[in-house]
């Protein structure tokens, strides 16, 4: 992190503002590709729900990434960014069949996680190849809100329902070209991931015309200084070797797919906000900033941790602050945090702000969403302007009352 460059961005574009470093994205992408170097065909599909800015999608396209989407709108943005339809995998949950038909019309790779939808699809589009998302019944992930592969999850088709799935495929003539799983986010335990992989292999061996196996993602990035993260190299060694054994036994060369989102962009992002007030009460010193959970909801929604640094006073003595926002509800970013002394007007920096931050921003309290800036070859480029009152009212239809 270049402190002076971030301060220059804050001065030039104002705060609050999101800043993303493309070189960190590139390094994470290449690290993951290199970790699976023993596998001949590896494809990373950037999970763009983490951050859907068009320019970030274009950047990953330039790295030869595919795209993982969960809505038709994400797929459309992906195509606008230059991805071909067959480079986009569409993994919806609970959407209407009309939206799935749109995915067929666009020519996307389609991932189905519901038996009734699979049956409907087989009757209507028996010649259109699809992937099946399984639920391995494994509890994995950083907390219950981001664990999606357990028995009570709404995601995926239970592994115990595979006999029904196979009978349905035989009856409709449906073409299955991929098997997919995703167990959760912030997965640290490699053995849990490998356990899920064995379940996926067991399911895959019964489908004879596969092109790829998609192992999802959910890899943990460090949120604290020297914090824990997924050992991607160890995973690459273990899963890569096991995958090679499986495809040899399967009798066909397959593509090993992943759909990393947060892993690729989280550490590239910085959220900059200015301190409006420093308020001391009987028990706490509050630092109130020019933002709130309308811009960064993860700490309030998930209990997610973002390190907070004082860019303006890095040599100031350490003091303890509760950093809060300006929303008319409790919106605490960090409680009792040790930060270099904060003064009104200082610029604070929130780390790990590249994933699920701007993409979850809202206009709550009728506040404008912030600008976004991308660092490319060391140059700060505006990739989304700060909203205005015209943007806020742009879809409103005023009637006579």
From TrEMBL:
Its EC number is 4.1.1.20. SUPFAM superfamilies: Alanine racemase C-terminal domain-like (SSF50621), PLP-binding barrel (SSF51419). Pathway: Amino-acid biosynthesis; L-lysine biosynthesis via DAP pathway; L-lysine from DL-2,6-diaminopimelate: step 1/1. One of its GO terms (molecular function) is pyridoxal phosphate binding. Pyridoxal 5'-phosphate binds at residues 218, 356. Pfam families: Orn_Arg_deC_N (PF02784), Orn_DAP_Arg_deC (PF00278). Keywords: Amino-acid biosynthesis, Decarboxylase, Lyase, Lysine biosynthesis, Pyridoxal phosphate. It comes from the Bacteria. Residues 18-354 form the Orn/DAP/Arg decarboxylase 2 C-terminal domain. InterPro entries: Ala_racemase/Decarboxylase_C, DAP_deCOOHase_LysA, De-COase2_C, De-COase2_N, Orn/DAP/Arg_de-COase, PLP-binding_barrel. Residues 28-266 form the Orn/DAP/Arg decarboxylase 2 N-terminal domain. Its cofactor is pyridoxal 5'-phosphate. The modification N6-(pyridoxal phosphate)lysine is found at residue 49. It catalyses: meso-2,6-diaminopimelate + H(+) = L-lysine + CO2. GO terms for biological process: lysine biosynthetic process via diaminopimelate. The active site is at residue 328. Substrate binds at residues 298, 302, 329, 356. Specifically catalyzes the decarboxylation of meso-diaminopimelate (meso-DAP) to L-lysine. Homodimer. Belongs to the Orn/Lys/Arg decarboxylase class-II family. LysA subfamily. HAMAP family: LysA. This is Diaminopimelate decarboxylase.
């Amino acid at each position: 992190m270049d402190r002076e460059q971030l301060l220059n961005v804050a001065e030039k574009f104002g705060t609050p503002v999101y800043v993303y470093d493309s070189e960190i994205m590139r390094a994470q992408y290449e690290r993951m590709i290199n970790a699976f170097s023993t596998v001949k065909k590896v494809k990373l599909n950037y999970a763009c729900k983490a951050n859907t800015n068009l320019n970030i999608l274009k950047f990953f396209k330039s790295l030869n990434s595919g795209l993982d989407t969960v809505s038709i709108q994400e797929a459309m943005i992906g195509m606008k960014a230059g991805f071909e339809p067959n480079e986009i995998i569409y993994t919806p949950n609970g959407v209407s069949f009309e939206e799935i038909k749109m995915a067929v019309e666009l020519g996307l790779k389609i991932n189905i996680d519901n038996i009734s939808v699979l049956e409907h699809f087989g009757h209507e589009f028996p010649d259109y190849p699809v992937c099946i998302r399984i639920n391995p019944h494994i509890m994995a992930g950083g907390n219950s809100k981001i664990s999606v592969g357990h028995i009570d999850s709404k995601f995926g088709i239970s592994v115990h329902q595979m006999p029904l799935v196979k009978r349905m495929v035989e009856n409709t003539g449906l073409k299955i070209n991929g098997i997919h799983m995703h167990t959760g986010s912030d997965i640290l335990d490699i053995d849990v991931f490998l356990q899920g992989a064995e379940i996926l292999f067991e399911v895959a061996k019964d489908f004879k015309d596969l092109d790829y196996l998609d192992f999802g993602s959910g890899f943990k990035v460090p949120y604290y200084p020297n914090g824990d993260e997924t050992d991607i190299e160890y995973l690459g060694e273990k899963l890569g070797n096991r995958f090679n054994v499986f495809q040899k036994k399967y009798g066909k060369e397959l593509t090993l797919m992943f759909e990393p989102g947060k892993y690729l962009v989280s550490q590239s992002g910085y959220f900059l906000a200015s301190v409006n007030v420093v308020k001391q009460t009987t028990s706490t010193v509050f630092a109130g900033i020019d933002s709130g959970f309308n811009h960064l909801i993860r700490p309030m929604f998930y209990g997610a941790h973002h390190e907070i640094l004082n860019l303006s006073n890095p040599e100031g003595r350490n003091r303890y602050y509760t950093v809060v926002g300006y929303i008319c509800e409790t919106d605490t970013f960090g409680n009792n945090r040790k930060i270099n002394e904060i003064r009104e007007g200082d610029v604070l920096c929130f780390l790990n702000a590249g994933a699920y931050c701007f993409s979850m921003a809202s206009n709550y309290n009728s506040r404008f969403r912030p600008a976004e800036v991308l660092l490319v070859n060391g140059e700060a480029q505006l990739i989304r302007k700060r909203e205005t009152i015209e943007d806020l009212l742009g879809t409103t239809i005023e009637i006579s009352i």
